[in-house]
């Protein structure tokens, strides 16, 4: 072989090797909505390379809008999960809370729903849930000038909860006096505004969110009682996409082991102990 042929052969080999490296680093399998997950089953998403998220974006400190951009614990958690899987996380415009699970179940609009969804049997009939990432209870909030001292004091009064939530469920199951009126609101911010305006006497919703509202946004109100319901939050995924559910669960274990999960959790809840996530 001539010297020129040897040089050309070497250049060809180098180009082939470089192209193989580039292919190996590309997590996008093209326009078919699938993403490679380190040799695991392909991860299907509605848009290739993108994890499309539905949320009400109105539940601080879990998820809220900072200007026109989402922020909060769940936002940072989803970004970390997306990075681990190799997906860009994109949020839809804020959704009504009580429509999100149905949209996730359809698998046509959003890949996952993240709005502090309590995992329960009724919801598990519609969607799958990831490993729980937060433990919570319910709480009832009233104005500081009100005379109430416990949740059952609101039996027979007009109270409020966010539509489709376990807070609304608790009211229906426990405040059974015929005079009890439950008003339901699309957003937690609307619920607290109604309490502040005197339209309702008590607001029932998740304790960590209630604590955030009374500490920072509605300081004339207070938590009357924490209700020990022992709830756990999970990310909702379509039953038709078990590969995505598995990828998210694996990513959660990985970011737990490398410290990312605890760092995000303690940023928002420094007084709490992060869950183990099975890691």
Can you tell me about this structure?
With 279 residues, the protein is α/β, with parallel strands linked by helices. The chain has 2 domains: 34-133 and 234-268, D-Maltodextrin-Binding Protein, domain 2 (3-Layer(aba) Sandwich); 135-230, Periplasmic binding protein-like II (D-Maltodextrin-Binding Protein, domain 2, 3-Layer(aba) Sandwich), CATH 3.40.190.10. Helices cover 38% and strands 25% of the residues. It has helices at residues 3-25, 73-85, 97-106, 121-124, 166-174, 188-197, 207-217, 242-257, 260-268, and strands at residues 34-37, 40-44, 50-54, 58-59, 63-66, 69-71, 88-91, 112-113, 128-129, 134-143, 158-162, 181-185, 202-206, 221-233, 236-237. Strands 7-3-8-15-9 form a 5-stranded mixed sheet, sandwiched between helices. The protein has a 5-stranded mixed sheet with strand order 12-11-13-10-14, with helices on both faces. A hairpin with a 2-residue loop joins strand 5 (63-66) and strand 6 (69-71). The termini are far apart. Mean pLDDT is 88; it is low at 1-33.
CATH architecture of the largest domain: 3-Layer(aba) Sandwich
Number of helices: 9
Strand order of the largest sheet: 7-3-8-15-9
> Helices and strands, in N-to-C order?
HEEEEEEHEHEHEEEHEHEHEEHH
Shape: globular
Largest sheet: 5 strands, mixed
**Class derived from helix and strand content:** alpha/beta
CATH superfamily of the largest domain: Periplasmic binding protein-like II
Q: Provide the β-strand percentage band.
A: 25-35%
What is the CA–CA distance across the termini?
58 Å
Q: Estimate percent helicity.
A: 25-40%
**CATH T-level topology of the largest domain:** D-Maltodextrin-Binding Protein, domain 2
C-alpha-based Rg, rounded:
24 Å
- Average of pLDDT: 88
What's the number of structural domains?
A: 2
Strand count: 15
